[in-house]
Amino acid sequence: MLGKNSSIVVVGAGAIGGVTAAFMRENGYNVEIVCKYPELVQTIAKRGIHITGVRGDITVPMPAVASIRDLKGKKDVIFLATKATDMLAAAKELLPFMKTDSVLVSLQNGLCEDAIAAVIGRQRTIGCVVGWGGTMHAPGELEMTSTGEFIIGNIDHRPDDRLVPIKEMMDSVLPTIITDNIIGHLYSKLIINACITSLGALCGLYLGQMLAKMKVRRIFIEIMKEAVAVADAMKLTIEPYGGKLDYYRLTKNETLPVKLAAHGLIMVIGVKYRRLKSSSLQSLERGKPTEIDYLNGYICAQGDRCGVETPVNDEIVRMIKEIEKGNRPISYRNFNEGLFAKF
């Protein structure tokens, strides 16, 4: 039975992984963490991870190692909190440290569970939506910027006795919800990221600046329409994002009042999160690849598999990959080229 004596490892000491590990450790769980930065190992072991923000100010020392290869023994539960671009390599490295009944909880952006399951096995893979925010100001210096919840579930929509003790672990951080439609929740978050994160990477603007422009809002809505069409072909029910954003209501009705309501809702999002800077944009500015293959790229791949055309998402993927290669600048002018010229 999973519990406080289970051997738990969090892979990734960034905002999500570090905060998750610290609050579980503070609550008495047997947690260690794998750091990306070797120099951080002694700092975490001696001084601890320092967290500020919406849940207060705490510092939590815990066992830490510099890489997965430095772990000892088999682990009962693994929380994988790397970037999506690093997750498959990490999953392969974790295999020697997994038992037959070990569980891995994916904390990635995008819909990554199928790719992870192909490496470690579907029976070991638990899906998770991270519905709260955090920022890493420096290695080991983390801020929890917003509250929310975790949502977890079996990726094959099956009853799973492991979910209750995993929920109890994650409740140490924030309330955790068990769902029988985790893929529908993950896809819901993927859609909003495919709109906000990817469009921000193309133009380089903060969210408020970007969503104030009608052209961008039209593209935003078209991304949602294509994503919903793909989900219909997959026979996947998309859960409302945050329990409120209903993609079906915004995309299935073409009447003028609904169109105006969609634009109004998107503008409200822009005002509320006006200083939000795309995580993909931040990756590009650091010279790092984005997670596009697990955001808009996932919509495109599933569209290809199901015979649904996704031209807008295809164009976004193409342009961002050109930016990654240095063949295209980050600029609002990207929205005036190719397929986007018609919006």
What is shown here, in short?
Helices cover 43% and strands 17% of the residues.
Features:
four-stranded mixed β-sheet; alpha/beta; single chain; 343 residues; 12 strands; Rossmann fold; N-(1-d-carboxylethyl)-l-norvaline Dehydrogenase, domain 2
Reconstruct the topology from this structure:
Elements: E1 8-11, H1 15-26, E2 31-34, H2 40-46, E3 49-53, E4 58-60, E5 64-65, E6 75-80, H3 84-94, E7 98-106, H4 113-120, E8 125-130, E9 133-138, E10 141-146, E11 150-154, H5 163-170, E12 176-178, H6 182-203, H7 207-211, H8 214-234, H9 247-251, H10 256-272, H11 279-285, H12 296-306, H13 311-324
Parallel strand pairs: 1-2, 1-6, 2-5, 3-10, 6-7, 7-8, 11-12
Antiparallel strand pairs: 3-4, 8-11, 9-10
Task: Give a verbal description of the structure.
This protein has 343 residues and is of the alpha/beta class. The protein has 2 domains: 8-180, 3-Layer(aba) Sandwich (Rossmann fold); 184-342, N-(1-d-carboxylethyl)-l-norvaline Dehydrogenase, domain 2 (Orthogonal Bundle), CATH 1.10.1040. Helix content is 43%, strand content 17%. The protein is built from 13 helices and 12 strands. α5 links the parallel β11 and β12. The radius of gyration is 20 Å and the shape is globular.
CATH class of the largest domain: Alpha Beta
What share of the residues does DSSP label as strand, in percent?
15-25%
Number of DSSP helices?
13
Structural category: alpha/beta
Q: Helix and strand string, N-terminal first?
A: EHEHEEEEHEHEEEEHEHHHHHHHH
Q: How many individual domains?
A: 2
Low-pLDDT segments: none
Give the averaged pLDDT, no decimals. Answer: 92
At CATH level 2, the architecture of the largest domain is 3-Layer(aba) Sandwich
Going by CATH, the homologous superfamily of the largest domain would be NAD(P)-binding Rossmann-like Domain
Shape: globular
* Strand order within the widest beta sheet: 5-2-1-6-7-8-11-12
The CATH topology of the largest domain comes to Rossmann fold
- CA radius of gyration is 20 Å
- Give the biggest sheet: 8 strands, mixed
Helical content stands at 40-55%
Number of strands: 12
